[in-house]
Each structure stands twice: as structure tokens, then as C-alpha cells.
Give the backbone structure.
Amino acid sequence: MSGPNTDYDPVEVTPLKSEEVDAARDAALAAIAAATDLDALKQVRIEHTGDRSPLALANREIGALPPQARKEAGQRIGQARGAVNQALAARQTLLDVEHEERMLVEETVDVTLPTDRIPAGARHPITTASEMIADIFVAMGWEVAEGPVIEAEWLNFDALNLGPDHPARTMQDTFWTDPPEDHTVLRTHTSPVQARTMLTREPPIYVVCPGRVFRTDEYDATHSPVFHQVEGLVVDEGISMAHLKGTLDHFASAMFGEGITTRFRPSYFPFTEPSAEVDLTCFVCRGSGVVTVGDVSGTEHQTPCRTCRGEGWIEWGGCGIVNPRVLTACGVDSGRFSGFAFGMGIDRTLMFRHGIDDLRVFFEGDLRFTTAFGSEI
Ligand code: DAH
């Protein structure tokens, strides 16, 4: 191995010549000054301070110099690199600030600009209400059952103990499909889903069924040939009216708020025995039948509640203990099992929940109505 070349003249090592170092430094400084954005500066950094940059290559030559020459060459290169790094840092700070400011300007949202005029739309309130009801029961471990809207006459009527002479079977109430020999109807209530469920599942049965139903009603503010019901059915051992009452009280408070409960009035339905009409505590006057209003002079006085017409209660639906004849018709052992069932109108429920006085808003597809409800009810 040969020792250091003592005759070696550092001035002859081209990259280390003072003019060369100055030129490399000046080229770097000029490039830094000319970099107008962060990307350009990144490129300049690679070209002028990277491993293959003139100053880095020159720096590597120092080691080859005789010791006495290293110091001066080292200082010269060190100063040049220091100046370049300093200029880079200063330029970086400047361009960072500029970038930040430009982003702020570019990303500014002009809140005064007109909004998008394409309406986003909203889910229909009947859909969201049906889902909300289903959720209340699913939370208690029930299942959601479904059935077809075009239904067999036997399931819509006979299985539910609606004998051939029952008034609901007359042409007046029911849409029959052609040809009549098919014995098929547009279901007049969600109760046939009870029969379908019992025919296809073994007890214990806990199902809720929201759905669309049809009757040959006039189309006016309180009637429509199509509307929506929710049906509930439980079949298990030892089911009593107490379970029905507790379930409906829970449903009422979950749907309308704490303190809202139900009362039963004796009634008749062919598919339940005993049967009851279910009323709901009026959630506006909270059962008192009166509300306090203030007039223009600020004097307060009490007037009958408009929502329940001073009754304190609102009619909600029908319910009862499943008639053993229905259990038997649907293949359930009525000696061992008993059940309860209930049914209410979803449209009606929404009408009094939101003070809607015309049923037709649900069916006319006016976006101003559905959007006002949003996806929430
Ligand atoms: N299906 C009845 C109707 O449409 C409502 C109803 C009443 C359903 C009592 C039931 C029930 O399940 O037990 O008017």
C-alpha cells in the first residue's frame, strides 16, 4: 500500500479549487433562490446537497489530500456546504409559509354561494317509522315477519275466524283480484301474517310485522285505499292479557316517550277472544284532556286538547288473546299454547305523533313533506 503523496498539490485537485467550490456554492444558491415551490426545492436539495452533488463529491476528495492540506480544503468546503444548507433552510421556511397560505385561500369555502339545487331527497316517513317500530321489538328479542300484499282469501279471512258472513268480507271493503275463482285479495290487514307465521314456525313465536294493506275506502283526509299497519303476535306457554298490556305499554313509551301508557276498552275481533281496543295516553296533554295556552295579552288559560279532543286518550289499535280457533286453524296446539296479538295503523300513529291532519301527504310524494321529516322521524 502506498502512503500519502506528500508532493500532492491540493490546488491541482480540481473539485477542491477555490473557484470550483465557489462556483458550486453559487450555482446551489442561485438554484435555491430560483425554486418557487416545495417540489422544485426538493429537487434542488437533491441536486446540490445529495450524494452526487458537486459539493458532496468535493467533500469526499478531502480524505485523499495530504494532512496539511486537509484543513484548508475542509474549511472551504464546509463553509460552502454550510451556506447552501442555511439558504435551503431559509427557503424551505419561506415556501412552507407560502404553501400554507395558498392552501388556506384555495380551500376556502364561500358560504354565501348558492347551494346545490338538486334536492337530496329523504327516506319516506312511513319507512323510517316502520323501521323504528321494528327496532323497538327486535330490541326485546322479537323477529320481523313479512307476508305478501296479494294474499289468499283463506289466510286473510278464514284462518282468522272471519267467517264468510263477516261484514269485512263484502265487496265494499276488499279488493278482490281477477278471476274470482283464484280466491285472492289485496290483504285488508297485516293479520294474515299471523296465520302464515303459525303455519311455518313452531312456538315460541314472537314476531312483529309492519306492512302495506288495502281497502276500498274513499281517498280523503282520513281514509286511503292503501295504508300501513303493524301487527304483533306472540304464541308461547302461559301467555296472558298481562303480557299483552306490558308489551303495549313498553311500545307506547318507546314510541312516544316516558310516561305514555295504554288503556284497554272491551271490543270484538273474530281472531281474538277476549278483544280490546287500545288507547294511548295523549302525549300532548299527557292524559289531562286540557292544555294551557297564552293569548296575545299574555294571559294563560286552559282549553280542551285538540289532539285527543279533550279525551286524554287517543285510539291506537286493536288487540286481544289469540282465539283458540285461530291457533287450531294454523296448526298450533291450543291446549298447550296461548298467545296475544295486536294491530295498529302506522299512518295514523304518525299523524297524531306529528300533528298531521291530512293522511294524503303520505301518498302524494311531495318532497317538501318527506324532506321535512328527513331520514329521522
Ligand atoms: N286486523 C285488525 C284491523 O285491521 C287490527 C287488529 C285487531 C289486529 C286486533 C290484531 C288484533 O292482531 O288482535 O282492524
Summary: The first strand starts at residue 143 and ends at 144. The chain has eleven helices and eleven strands.
